[in-house]
Model the fold of this input.
Amino acid sequence: MIAAILITCLGIALSAFFSGSETGFYRVTRVRLEIDAKEGQLVARGLHWLATKANLVVATVLIGNNIANYLVSLGLVLISARILAPDSQLESALPLLMTPVLFIYGELLPKFLFYQAPYRLLRLGAPVMLLCTILFMPVSIFVLLLETISGWLNPRETPGPTASRERQELQRVLVEGQEAGVVLPI
Done:
């Protein structure tokens, strides 16, 4: 029973980590990552490398979240087998009761926290994220290959140069600097 509870909690924790990390990578200031990486900070270099590989981050997050959800499901099956009679109608109630818990603690709260402090939280989780990126690489390569093939078979107009994205990033950095009081308003 304890093992089943631990598996469920591990699944929720992994879901929280991957969901929050995804938001963190979208929110983190690339300029700060680049500066810290150039100063030789190992964690910042790893995060900067990941931040420049958005498709790989998304693939890692998706794979990680699937594993996390599988662990939650496995834990719930083990718990229900232990506490409920076989063929009990209550087996359906356990996932229904767990869904809001997983949504709040595995998705909503971590995304909010990483939205508020992306750099700090990404730095804390960087070793785990880098390890998972390496461990999931075979599956990620397959997913990215499927994405490439899909792009060939169904070509879409590619967005213009990254200048627009870079301009938005610079504007966001300037606004953050103004809010922090380190950059004077223009």
The helical segments are 2-27, 30-38, 42-51, 54-83, 93-116, 118-135, 137-153, 163-180. The two ends are 61 Å apart (CA to CA).
